[in-house]
Write a structure and sequence with these properties.
It is a single chain. Helix content is 91%, strand content 0%. With 86 residues, it is mostly helical. Helix 1 packs antiparallel against helix 2.
């Protein structure tokens, strides 16, 4: 195999690895969406069981959702970086 063909093959493997890595990093965005849904689903369950305690837990639900969304945005950033960094 000549050196030019070997370089082209290596470049193709690197591109494939970038796409696979970005796809795996993008799974974190779906996990963040599942996390936010779980947080608010459990909040609503607790609020329906004990409505008087719902006001005290509302802020904590938003803090948890913000942290989960932050991790989703971080996963998106990693996926974009993997795609566009040479």
């Amino acid at each position: 195999m000549d050196p030019q063909a070997a370089r082209e093959m290596a470049a193709a493997y690197m591109d494939a690895a970038k796409f696979i890595g970005a796809g795996l990093a993008a799974i974190g965005m779906g996990a963040a969406a599942i996390g936010v849904g779980t947080i608010f689903g459990n909040f609503l369950t607790g609020a329906l069981r004990n409505p008087s305690a719902a006001d005290g837990q509302f802020g904590r639900a938003f803090i948890g959702a913000a942290l989960a969304e932050g991790l989703g945005i971080f996963a998106f950033l990693v996926a974009i970086l993997l795609l566009f960094v040479k």
